[in-house]
Amino acid sequence: MLPWGLVLALPHSGGLCPIGFTRILWSRLFATIVGAMAFRVFLSYSLDPAEMALAWRLQTLSAAHGIEMYVPQHGVGTAPPGAVTVQRAIDRADCVLAILTTAASQMVQEELSYALAHRKLVIPIVRTDLAGHPLLARFPRVFTFSPWDNPGAVESQIVEFLKEQQLTKDKQQAIGALAALGLGLIVLFSLNKQ
């Protein structure tokens, strides 16, 4: 497993997310979040293998702006000695961002169940056709998306949900920005497939 803050440098893949666009987006989203250095996010994901770069890109962009994002490596054998366990990473996280574009694996279900049991703030962003999964019924709020719908509507719903939580404004902005970026990357990946 990757330790907190370790960033993988991925090569640009076919112009999916141009560097200039990414820099402009992140500059705008995180202009007011300079003091978020200790902010930690656990990314629970269930992605199509072709979308896996989304998780690493989101981790890289988060780290570039002082946010530690833990991305567990699913399907890998046992963790090396001294590695941060998934449970410990969830315990240390300020929130859990769950991005599901495929059915949740057993590992993802365990991550999300653990986070719920430990009263972590979980922001589940789920493709519309997966919204009926029994695990999702346990969350107070599930945010669904379709690549063909306006992502701004989902972003607004997430922002409103975050306002209802007892979080500092900086944390609301950081989580909202990460959710918006994750959603934007999902839409770009989906449209790129078409």
Entry summary:
The protein is of the alpha/beta class and 194 residues long.
Query: Biggest sheet, strands in spatial order?
Result: 2-1-3-4-5
The rounded distance between the terminal residues' Cα atoms is: 32 Å
The CATH architecture classification is 3-Layer(aba) Sandwich
Q: What letter string, H or E per element, gives the SSE order?
A: HEHEHEHEEHH
Count of DSSP-assigned helices: 6
The largest sheet is: 5 strands, parallel
SS elements, strand count? 5
Which class best fits the helix and strand makeup?
A: alpha/beta
Provide structural commentary:
- This protein has 194 residues and is an alpha/beta fold.
- It has a single domain (42-76, 83-193), classed as Rossmann fold, CATH 3.40.50.
- The protein is 42% helix and 13% strand.
- The chain has a five-stranded parallel β-sheet with strand order 2-1-3-4-5, with helices on both faces.
- β3, α4 (106-117) and β4 (122-127) form a beta-alpha-beta unit.
- The longest helix has 25 residues, at 169-193.
- The radius of gyration is 16 Å and the shape is globular.
Sequence-ordered SSE layout with sheet pairings:
Blueprint: H1 19-29, E1 40-46, H2 52-64, E2 68-70, H3 86-92, E3 95-100, H4 106-117, E4 122-127, E5 143-145, H5 151-164, H6 169-193
Parallel strand pairs: 1-2, 1-3, 3-4, 4-5
Helix pairs in contact: 2-6, 5-6
